[in-house]
Design a protein that fits this description.
Growth Hormone, Chain: A, 10% strand, four-stranded antiparallel β-sheet, Rossmann fold, alpha/beta, 722 residues, 23 helices, 11 strands
Length: 722
């Protein structure tokens, strides 16, 4: 294939490489939310569809030299925008419209280049058919798939661990420049092979001439349906009849459902773990694999295997959803990934069975691409407004099951793909779908208020069962409790949940030398993450608490449903927006906080905000702290052990006497506190020598001593997996 094969391979590689690269680059600008990735995918899906549409239009409407000129013009435009360097200028400090902001940043940084890359493979297929009509062009698809898979596997395993983000963007820019030269060379070959005198009256007609020895005509400009731009292998010739309206709707519905499942599965994985490239690319790789298998050969999709497989997958994921956070993270990842694979195989396998006659292939491809984009629009734009929870995953599972059943009963004479018999299989799948609905309804029991936005799902509910003295109101973020408050007058102002007197934050506040000194008893405390505001129960007259809270709904819930902020004698202030961005802005404006404590308690739903744990961010905290200040980090996590990172941060200023101490508290039923883990970093000798403080310190665990430094350019959270 020569230059054509190399260009297609490189274009597919760059398409997939830039997605996790840019999403990780802008992740800290939007609070480390998993929504950054799914919103980024929405952008890439929409631009991908636009690129497919351009390839289709250009091949149909423009003469060969016109296509070459247009390609050179686009190449020149995109090269002028290099190097790849996203900018956060113009972003609001409080991140009021994160979805629109993400789309705008991506459009400005890579929109033109991604558009051209999306159109490259189908365009080059058309050119190759014109220049070498006797050579099968579909082998280019194989090279494109190899390029896509190389990027998916290479980024989390090779690129991310070994290259800083700045070097990653530089590498991508250099590779894109190489792609531009190769693509320009392909356009030159097209130009030379099409002299002006040979201009066609109808470019599209010649393009559909069957290739010698091929049962399927080459379809120039036919977009290659994949969520992120990877072309597919050739599709064998389908039926000769014109597609019906129902078939066209299924061309849209089936890829839409698979796209929905991809994004919903990614959300499920990232919400309670971390928004990291590995958990982004694993579902995408599985999704792409199903495309490759189904469109390579119908033999990869036997109904008799994947019908029962769908039922088993649905039953298994119902158990995972019921067991909730008590399922180990590796098992959750495996279960969600397997379920996505089975659902994608069913959707794409049934899609292949509906393939049309060759003359309808271009519309078939475009409908598939549009369906993928619509799935992204539903998850990112419609679901947050329609649902109070992350129910698109449940909806997608139920919809795939019901559509599969509908197709089964429609093809009465076809291969029976559900075992045992159809009626039993139908009842089983419908029962599982109903179980998913019950799971959703259980999530609303006792709910005082539920609110979903870009940053997750917040739920407030009352527990009025049992002893009246135990009645309390709870805030949950995702599937994790983020604080509660008792109604009983005596308990209402207790430091409950993760903030008990024996917890790390309780030890830090009550034993701070300023608190113990009658002449300077008041404290200035910065808290990253508001929650219910329980920490202000330690507040006294003259104290000052400044909360940094990225989620406006958390602020509203804390003020509306809990009374901690209202009851405290201390002065409080809430700064909206990402804490790091806000604190950096304050430093630029000369407004150092002069805080006695900086408290990092921003782990939403057990997800780890990596950008708040880097060396650069630690320097921001230190500049806001007084010389005798304390950094307190809440490290309670079901899945990750953050101690090695925090110990490495503590070693940076060891020569100044900085120490990192672990304080673990088993909780107390009498004091209504929960088990917690905190790490305190300080060089305050008076605090470090305090007898009560030393008594509270817990020995470091095995493996906590290994050096592991996170920076803005490098982080590898899976090295911390428990």
């Amino acid at each position: 294939m020569g230059i054509y094969g190399a260009t297609v391979f490189l274009s597919a590689f760059l398409l997939f490489l830039v997605q996790p690269l840019l999403a990780k680059y802008i992740l800290p600008w939007f609070g480390g939310s998993p929504g950054v990735w799914t919103t980024s995918l929405l952008f890439f899906q929409v631009v991908l569809t636009a690129g497919y549409g351009w390839a289709h239009l250009a091949a149909r409407r423009l003469p060969p030299r016109g296509q070459a000129l247009a390609t050179w013009a686009l190449l020149g435009l995109t090269l002028a925008l290099l190097p790849l360097a996203p900018s956060r200028s113009g972003l609001a400090a409080d991140i009021a419209t994160p979805t629109l902001d993400i789309l705008r940043v991506l459009l400005a940084s890579v929109g033109a280049a991604y558009f051209l890359l999306s159109a490259t493979s189908p365009m080059l297929q058309a050119w190759h058919s014109r220049i070498r009509p006797g050579v099968e062009p579909y082998r280019l698809y194989t090279l494109a798939n190899l390029g896509s898979l190389a990027a998916i596997t290479g980024y989390p395993l090779l690129v991310e661990p070994n290259l800083r983000l700045g070097n990653q963007t530089l590498l991508w820019s250099l590779l894109y420049a190489g792609f531009a030269l190769m693509c320009a060379g392909c356009a030159w070959r097209l130009w030379k092979s099409s002299p002006p005198a040979a201009a066609e009256a109808s470019p599209g007609a010649a393009a559909l001439t069957p290739l010698p020895g091929s049962s399927t005509p080459s379809v120039p400009g036919s977009p290659t349906p994949s969520i992120a731009g990877s072309p597919m292998p050739a599709i064998a010739e389908g039926t000769s009849e014109s597609p019906t309206a129902r078939q066209r709707w299924l061309w849209l519905l089936l890829p839409g459902l698979s796209s929905l499942m991809l994004l919903a599965t990614t959300n499920q994985l990232c919400l309670d773990a971390a928004a990291i490239p590995l958990l982004w690319l694993l579902p995408m790789g599985v999704y792409l694999l199903s495309f490759i298998l189904c469109f390579h050969s119908e033999r990869w999709y036997p109904r008799a295997v994947f019908g029962p497989g769908l039922a088993v997958a649905l039953a298994g994921i119902c158990v995972i959803l019921y067991r909730d956070v008590y399922v180990p993270l590796p098992l959750q990842i495996a279960a969600y990934t397997l379920t996505l694979f089975v659902c994608s195989m069913v959707c794409h396998g049934e899609l292949v069975r509906l393939r049309p006659a060759p003359r309808h292939l271009t519309s078939f491809y475009l409908m598939i691409s549009a369906g993928g984009a619509l799935g992204g629009v539903f998850v990112n734009l419609l679901a947050p407004r329609l649902f109070r929870g992350y129910w698109e995953f449940h909806l997608g599972l139920g919809a795939v099951a019901l559509v599969a059943l509908a197709l089964l009963f429609r093809d009465r004479g076809a291969e029976n793909w559900l075992l045992p018999p159809r009626v039993f299989a139908a009842l089983f799948l419908i029962g599982l779908t109903a179980a998913l609905g019950v799971h959703i309804s259980r999530g609303l029991e006792d709910a005082v208020e539920v609110k979903r936005n870009f940053f997750g799902v917040l739920k407030v509910f009352d527990d009025d069962r049992g002893d009246p003295g135990e009645h309390h109101r709870t805030l949950m973020h995702g599937r994790i409790v983020h604080g509660y408050q008792y109604y009983h007058e005596e308990k209402r102002y207790w430091p409950v949940s993760y903030y008990g007197p024996a917890s790390g934050i309780g030890v830090a506040i009550m034993n701070h030398p300023r608190r113990l000194d009658p002449d300077r008893r008041s404290l200035r405390i910065a808290v990253i993450g508001l929650g219910t505001g329980t920490i202000v129960t330690y507040g006294e007259e003259g104290d000052y608490f400044r909360f940094y809270e990225i989620n406006p709904e958390v602020t509203r819930f804390a003020q509306k449903h809990f009374t901690y902020l209202e009851d405290t004698p201390a002065r409080t202030e809430i700064v909206p927006g990402d804490a790091r961005i806000s604190m950096e802005r304050e430093l630029r404006e000369g407004r150092e906080g002069a805080f006695d404590l900086v408290v990092l308690d921003a782990f939403s739903s057990d997800a780890v905000p990596v950008h708040l744990l880097t060396r650069e961010c630690y320097d921001v905290y230190r500049r806001h702290l007084r010389t005798d200040g304390i950094l307190a980090v809440h490290t309670s996590s079901r899945y990750f052990n953050l101690n090695p990172v925090l110990r490495s941060l503590g070693r940076i200023h060891e020569e100044e006497g900085t120490e990192a101490m672990l304080v673990e508290d088993a909780g107390s039923g009498l004091q209504e506190t929960d088990p917690t883990s905190w790490v305190l970093l300080t060089s305050n000798r008076e605090f470090l020598s305090n007898r009560d403080v030393r008594a509270a310190v817990t020995p470091w665990g095995a493996g906590d001593d290994r050096p592991l430094m996170f920076t803005d350019d490098y982080s590898n959270l899976f090295r911390l997996l428990k």
